[in-house]
Amino acid sequence: MQASTVRSPIATITGLGSYLPARKLTNGDLEAMVDTSDEWIVERTGIHERRLAAPEQATSDLAVEAASLALADAGVTAGDLDLIIVATATPDHLFPSTACLVQKALGARQIPAMDVSAACTGFIYALAVAEGAIAAGRAETVLVVGAETLSRITDYQDRKTCVLFGDGAGAVVVRRASSPDHGILSVFLGADGAGADILKLPAGGSRLPASTGTVSERLHFIHMDGQEVFKFAVGAMIRSVRESLKSAGLTPSGIDLLVPHQANARIVDAAVRLLRLPGGKVFHTIEDYGNMSSASVPVSLDAARRQGRLVRGAVTVMVAFGAGMTYGGAVVRWDAPRQRQGDQEI
Ligand code: ACO
Description:
Elements: E1 11-19, E2 23-26, H1 27-31, H2 38-45, E3 49-52, H3 59-74, E4 83-87, H4 98-106, E5 113-116, H5 122-135, E6 141-149, H6 159-162, E7 167-176, E8 183-191, E9 199-200, H7 212-216, E10 223-224, H8 226-247, E11 257-260, H9 265-275, H10 286-289, H11 296-306, E12 315-322, E13 326-333
Parallel strand pairs: 4-5, 4-6, 11-12
Antiparallel strand pairs: 1-7, 2-3, 6-7, 8-13, 9-10, 12-13
Helix pairs in contact: 3-4, 8-9
The chain binds acetyl coenzyme *A (ACO).
């Protein structure tokens, strides 16, 4: 059902790529590190294993791998890019931006490159910035990456958080839409700073600079009130799905595939139940990769494409929430993304 006030898409996703480091951290491995069990982790989160970056790999290294695949998939080169945006909560450095490191490694021209900080909602925020740049005539071809090395800020002595997180990167190429019906139909963003304290990395910024005390108190790791985050997440995901669909002139029955942020299978299940979506329309990667923050959505999107789920005309809703607290959703009606060798037939 398409409302008459709905605008034609300005931008579209033309290429996808993802990169997962080879090393696996299983629930069995975690049982040997903290007081936990495979049974508890699977029942409470849905996670079986996650990937860990090699010691020499930083976030930009993962980002470059995913970006190179996305560029090849889109049939463009780094020289065609007008803007690079990297969404990450685990940049290589506080500055320079990870996007500048990606620009150099890809051999892109001297185009704008910047990071977006919206934690796990970062990829959706970055997609909105890309669409806005194209709408304003500032760019025609934008690289959007969600990349994380969460293992570097995870406290492997804290069983309440260390079972959740993994490393990875996903990337898309966003270009001006050429079809009046296919492309990014809408993006919805929100934030509630009142929840800033329930999920944070306490030290290492200007509020609490690094000191021997911050290190010994383990304040350079993720601190989280899991139950408060859980409560916020369900409402934020439902609102983001409904608002982004409304802007696209659609209702939940128009969704072909929901690609949610993979924070906890129970959060997704609760949101999906309240949205009355059939389980078969929801895409999961959490079993294998855990929560990869801003990389969760683009990695899942690429996995969905490999499984032949992004057929031409299919309506996909991406939705996320994260520290801030931030939240957001995006609705895409697919052109035919290019097929790579090894992808299932679509
Ligand atoms: N293994 C075994 N027991 C555990 C573990 C574990 N890994 N972790 C916690 N427990 C225990 C707790 O200590 C507690 O025991 P107690 O009752 O004796 O005190 C019991 O299990 C229940 O703990 P809860 O916190 O109530 O467990 P809950 O069912 O809420 O699950 C979880 C915890 C998985 C963290 C859940 O709250 C959650 O997923 N929250 C949202 C997390 C999230 O989405 N974070 C986003 C982060 S993204 C970013 O920006 C980086």
